[in-house]
Amino acid sequence: MTAAPEPAGDPGRIDVVCAAAGTALAVPPGTSILAAVRRAGLEVPAACPDASCGMCETRVLEGRPDHRDGVLTAEERASGETMMICVSRATTARLVLDL
Ligand code: FES
Description:
The chain has helices at 33-39, 74-79; strands at residues 14-18, 23-27, 57-62, 65-66, 82-84, 89-90, 94-97.
């Protein structure tokens, strides 16, 4: 999957905490959160190459997602309660996810 360009306000590296797994990892620019958490050994369902299936939807416990998917509604994006970790990033340097 090709990384989306970094918009203004994207901190680049994201520190991601997987709360349920008790794992913390750094996601560098150009690497998706999905790829990073899978590399850390977590099983996360994902089924599409273009951020359209919604299978990787993940609850956000702390931090602010930068939504880049084609699934969430405007209201869902504004709430920041969930995110598609295959493409979306963060406007905060740290995200705590329900993984
Ligand atoms: S894997 Fe399909 S939306 Fe993330």
